[in-house]
TrEMBL record:
Keywords: Coiled coil, Nucleus, RNA-binding
Matches recorded under PROSITE patterns: RRM
PANTHER family with a match to the protein in the record: RNA-BINDING (RRM/RBD/RNP MOTIFS) FAMILY PROTEIN (PTHR48033), RNA-BINDING PROTEIN SQUID (PTHR48033:SF10)
Protein name: RRM domain-containing protein
Keyword Transmembrane helix: no
Keyword GTP-binding: no
One cellular component term from this protein's GO annotations in UniProt: nucleoplasm
Amino acid sequence: MGDRQLFIGNLCNVPIETLRTYCEKYGKITDLSLNRDKDNNIYHCFAFVTFQIPNCTTEFMSKRPHFINGEEIFVKRALPRLTASIPERLVVTNRLVLSNSTKYDKETLKRYFKKLGYIKKFNYEKGFIDYKDYDDVDRILLARPHYVQGKEIFVTKFIPTEESDTDTSNEQSDRLTFINEDENLKIKYKYLEKQFEEYKQAKEKEINNLRKELQHTKEELCDITQIKLDKLIKNQQLFHQQLLFHLNPNSDLIHTQMCEDFLRSTSNKKRKTTPTTSLIENEYEYLT
């Protein structure tokens, strides 16, 4: 989907048409899927909305916070499965992690990533960049690969672990939230996997329907072609009968047989020339 898809959470009390109407204010939507499946008595009310152009996604994110029916909804860019890991898609954080940051010039590194968002803190030795907005981190991941001084630099999100949580518990900039702030850690990987399978099945169904329509169209074209071919053959038979009758109007039976022999011979890629057919061709050229 590139940079055209959004993840929207906190939608348990929002009808799908209300969500569609709200999102369409920011541009044309090509796809909208709302998840309301119930498992273990917990509703995971989230949706994926795909806009036609990336500018609509950027405008939607720039207008945060969003409220529908008086309740704030949570929005983030949806990272694609092919280029982002599961933790990268789930975690929302302001911190970007740079791999082997000290291999690059410090000022060059800072200038490059400063162009991609407002930096609150830059730790060159540890390879951390804290942005003011978590959306900056998602945009940077969507724009991978990144090159500094002609060399690719690997970037990812800060993924919390037990050790990192202990080390950074006193730093507010290291605070992490998850996709749905009201539900916190309730959304597990299996729910996203289930959502993906449903989306995949829906697309496969659309593809199968298109294949059926294509096959139906091909059959219709074949029928039309056959009808036209039959008509052409009949016209050709009539023409030759009339030609033979014109050449020798007193021998209908003979000329009919000659016509049938002539038509059978034309079905071959390279028919043999006989005195009879040669005579017909010469007479035809003379008449025309």
